[in-house]
Each structure stands twice: as C-alpha cells, then as structure tokens.
Amino acid sequence: MRAGAALVASALGRSGPARVGAGLLFFFVLVALVGPLLVADPTEMLARPLLPPGADHWFGTTGQGQDVLAQTVVGTRMSLFVGLATGLLVTALGALVGVTAGYFGGRVDDALSLLVNVFLVLPGLPLAIVLAAWLPPGPLSIVAVLTLTGWAWTARVLRAQTLSLRHKDFVAAAVVSGEGHARIMLREILPNMTSLWVSCAVGTATYAIGASVGLEFLGLGDVSRVTWGTNLYWATNDAALLTGSWWTFVPTGLCLALVGFGLTLLNYGLDELTNPRLGVDRAWRRALKAAGRTPGDSTPYLPPAEGGR
Amino acid sequence: MAFALRRLVFYLVAAWFAITLNFAIPRMMPGDPATTIFARFQGRLAPEALDALKASFGLTDAPLLTQYGTYLGHLFTGDLGLSVAYFPSPVSEVIGTGLGWTLLLAGTAVCFSFALGTLLGVLAAWRRGGRLDAILPPILSFLGAFPYFWLAMAALWLFGYTLGWFPVRHAYGSDLEPGWDLTFLVDVVRHGLLPASTIVLVTLGGWMLSMRNTMLGVLGGESILYARARGLAPRTIMWRYAARNALLPSVTSFGMALGFVLGGSLLTEIVFAYPGQGYLLLQAVRTQDYPLMQGIFLAITLAVLAANWIVDVVTMMLDPRIR
Q1: For A189, which DSSP code?
Q2: Which chain B residues contact residue A122 at CB under 8 A?
Q3: Is the ipTM of this complex over 0.85?
Q4: Chain A: nearest CA to B219, how far in angstroms?
C-alpha cells in the first residue's frame, strides 16, 4: 500500500496541472479550517440588505443583510466535508463490491455486476432527490444519499481492473502461499490499483460537492445552516436575478467551480499514471525538441513495451 | 438481435428494480410515511386530500406483499395517485404536461454537446499540442466544474436580465397559443436556446476529453501504422480509421451520461422556470408533494432506461463485433 501511495504522490508532483490543482485545494482547505474564525457571523443581519460589494462588505450583503464573504467562507467547510466524506464512503463501498465481484468471478460476479449495472443506469439525481426528501434534512443525510446513488461507477471501474489483475502471477503466488481471500484483496490487489481508486475518489468528491449543492439549492438541505448550497437557495429565494444582485450568487459559484476544477486537475496527474500513453506522448515531444526537431501532425508509433514507462 | 433482446431484459430488470425502490423508499424511512406526511400537512390539507394521499401510497394495514400487489396493479393502469400540489389532478396527468419539454430541452442539448464535443476531441487528438488542444481542454474543464444550475443563473442574469437578448422564463411566450405554426416554433427555439446552451457548455468538456484520450490510444495502434504505410490520405486515416474506432467508447458512455445530464438539466429548468419535470419537481419539493416527487422519479427513470436501450441498439449497429 505504501509503495502505491508513494507512486501516486510522485506522479502528482511531476504533473503541472496536478500541482496547480493541489494548490487550489490546499487554499480552500485552509479557508475551511481557519476562515470561519476570521469573518463575521454569517447568519447575523449586519447591514442593509442587498448592498453591492464595497469597503465594509467586500462581497456585499444578502437579501437579509448578511455578509456574503462570511457566508462564502463558512459555507466552504460543509461543502468540502460532504465532498470528502462521500468520496471516502463511495470508494470504500465501490471497492468492496467491485473487487469482490472481480476477484471471485462466477455467480458472485454475475449478481454483483447486475446490481452495479442497474445502479449505473438509474438516474442519480432524481433518486437522490426522492431519498433526501424523506430523510431528515442535514449534511449527513446528503452524504448518505449521495453515497447510495454514486457508488456504482467506482465499483465498475475497480471490478474491471481486478479482473485483469486476478490472473497475474503475483496473485497466483499469494493464493499458493495460502493467503486468505480478504488479505489478497486488501494487500495484493488494492495497492496495485492505487492510482485508479484515488482517481475514483477524487472524481466522486467532485460529483458529490456539485450534487450536494444541487440538493440544497432545491431546498432539500438544512436551510438554516450556512453551506454553499443554501447560499444559492437563499439567493434565488430573495430573487437575486430580478433585483440584479449578482454578488449574492457569483462568489459561491466561483468557489465551487475552483474547487471542482482543482479536483479535476488533480485527476489529470492521476490519469497519466493510469494511462501511460498520455505521459509518453509528452516525453516523446520533449525528446524531439531536445534533438532540435519540431513535432509535426504525424502520430508517433509507440510500441506498448516502451509505452509502459 | 439476441443482443438487443438481452439488453431489453436487462432494462426490464432495472425498471422493475426502480419500481420496487419507489415502493420501498417511503416504507424504509425512519418512522412511517403516513405520519411523516400528515405531520407536515397539519391543518393545511382537506381531509379528502389526506385520504387520497393515504390511498395513493397504498398505506393500509394490509401486509407488505398485498400492498406491493396493489401498488403494481395501480402502476400498470397508469395510476400514480393524486398530486398534493395540483390537487385533485392525478400525478400521471401532471407529469404528462412536463415530460415533453424536458425531453426536448435535455435531449437536444445532450445530442448537440455529444456531436460537437466528439468532433473537437477528434481534432484535438489529431493535432496534439496544437492550439485547439492547448486552449480548449482547460477552459472546458473549468466550465465543467460549475454546477449546471449556477451557470444557468449566471447566463440568465447576464444575457436575460442585463443584456435582454433572451426571454427570461418559460418555454414560450404567454401571448402565444401552442401549435405547429412557425411563430410558435421560433419562439420555442428562442426560449430554449439559453438553457440548452448552458447545458452544452457544462457537458462539452467531458465529451471532448474522453474522445481525445480514446483517440490517442487508437492513433498509436498498428492499424493506423498500417494505414499510414499504405499511403492513405491523412484525412481518411483521421476520420475513417481513427475517429470511427475511437467513437465506440463514447457512444457506450452516452447512455450513462443521459441520466446524469437529465438530472442536471432538471435544475437548469428550475432556474429558467422551464415547464418541464424539473420545475414540477421544485413544486413537489416545496409543497412536499411526495406522490408527485416519486412519480417524476419513475417517469425520468423509465425515460432514461428506454433511451439507454436505444443507444445500445445503435451501438450494436455501429459495432459489427457485437452483431
């Protein structure tokens, strides 16, 4: 497991986009941790409603006279929490189902694959909405709902990879040496696809942050709590568009996009690890440049044997 | 043909699963649904509405299996109960008013985004490191990181309210009578353009990147090397050999993306007050109209399953290996 993690970390360090993404995420984690201590109370009415951005309130005020900057900063905490928690839970559930299906094969695989495929074709958001409407509103309900509707893709990806690892020699060696099924799955198979499940977790976190904001925007969250979703919910409720008060929804949306973009960039770096051809292509260009030639439109043919590293 | 049938059976199983889920969700939740609903509607609903609600959920004292049988029976006759928000209209009727608009908006946007994104992906992969490949992916990934409805809000504020280029709500002008005449159709297009564009903008990057990356894989393959060795024109290699082979994974994921995009477009509809399922869903959530909410879930799910089957059949026709 440690070797896999080191490989992922070094791949991320090498990739430019991944570094930018990590930087963005680091900034928002900092905002989530420290920010709420530095800003005003986001729920208190501090000034006249719908003040445009100015010296006193950098991002303006909401329809209820609350400080938009404070709301944006405090909202970061809950959105990042929902993203992280859902990402972890989905990956755990997806790995459990996917690796089990791929490892055991046969009837187990048939049954689990059917379940995975059914959950894949069911539209996630409508199902999440129906589930969230029945549960008591709050972040934990949202995490539960998004986990239940979002695990199938991870399970499918990990199952496919498990299938291809299942018949490798090192797995056979582990079987022969008498290791238990659970141990083989946890210690042999999972560490050998670290980049894949980390990339799934990052993708899920991206999806979860967006979807949780969507649910809360609909009014299915706890509307008395300050999150990015409820910020947007209150912005529409206070007719932000009609009154032209763009500052009530623009900061939250931009932060959301920056976090999502950061996560996507992080995944670029992981993609190059999972799909070596993407990285090889860049190495080829660098080699051409070093030789003083300009790469043309033509496609270099890269034999798979060299393509690996 | 066997393949199409096998897929049909799968989607029927999925549909049965969704239908059963729809039955189970209210009954699995903490507390019993009747009390939940009644508590929320304290004094706001006429007694007959409450009775209708109770009946529409089949919330009787009968054993679960009997309740399930009654539920299935009602479902097959198209009886999804009565809507609370639009009482006393039946849920099926309320949903019927919005389904067409949703399919029109989301369907057009998805198809357009798929076609354009795939095209851009082919071009970007062909000229890797070129201008298109350097500029578009980061911009589109950034746009793709916005929630659909937020981009819709921003576009509506900018182009609808501030610049006044587009109508700001509904699917057609209130002074028009729906019909198949030119003025009406032009008006529908005018109203649909902005919401559809925001959906396209958010989804474009995904299609472009997946096509680009698959195409890179295909371009490195031996069939392309052989085509090159035969001296085929680059244009022929690009379209007839590389793009055609790289298209398949994109088509396969098209079906799955449908459900995803449809979910996002529901929220876009809400922003534009577009009279589709999303708008109905908002009413249902606001008024805690559970029968309507669940009816919408079922309708959307069945539509997505049907679309997926069609995509499968198209894939089958594109890919001789499956046939």
Answers
A1: I
A2: 14, 17-18, 21, 259, 301, 304
A3: no
A4: 7
Task: Verify whether the Cβ–Cβ distance B145 to A206 is below 8 Å.
Answer: yes
Question: Which pLDDT tens digit goes with each residue over B300-310?
Answer: 888 888 888 88
B150 contacts A232? CB cut-off 8 A: yes
Average pLDDT value over all residues in chain A: 80
Query: Is residue B30 scored above 70 in pLDDT?
Result: no
Identify whether the C-beta of residue A29 lies closer than 8 Å to the C-beta of residue A80.
yes
pLDDT computed for residue A232 by the predictor = 86
Q: Which fold has domain B95-287?
A: MetI-like fold (1.10.3720)
Span A178-237, pLDDT tens digits? 888 888 888 888 887 877 888 888 888 888 888 898 888 888 888 788 888 888 888 887
- Cα distances (Å, whole numbers) of residue B22 to A128, A240, B265, B267: 12, 35, 22, 21
Note whether A277 contacts B11, CB cutoff 8 Å.
no
- Indicate yes or no: CB of B301 within 8 angstroms of CB of A134: no
> Given B154, B217, B271, which is nearest A277 (Cβ)?
B217
Average confidence (pLDDT) over B45-66: 67
Tell the CATH superfamily of the A2-275 domain: MetI-like (1.10.3720.10)
User: What is the predicted pLDDT for the residue at B60?
Assistant: 63
**Residue B27 phi, psi dihedral angles, 5° rounding:** -85, -15
- Out of A123, A244, A259, closest to residue B259 by CB: A123
Q: Which chain A residue shows the shortest CA-CA distance from B307? A: A121
3-state secondary structure A298-309: CCCCCCHHHHCC
Distance CA(B102)–CA(B84), nearest Å, equals: 21
Question: Do B25 and A131 count as a contact with CB atoms less than 8 A apart?
Answer: yes
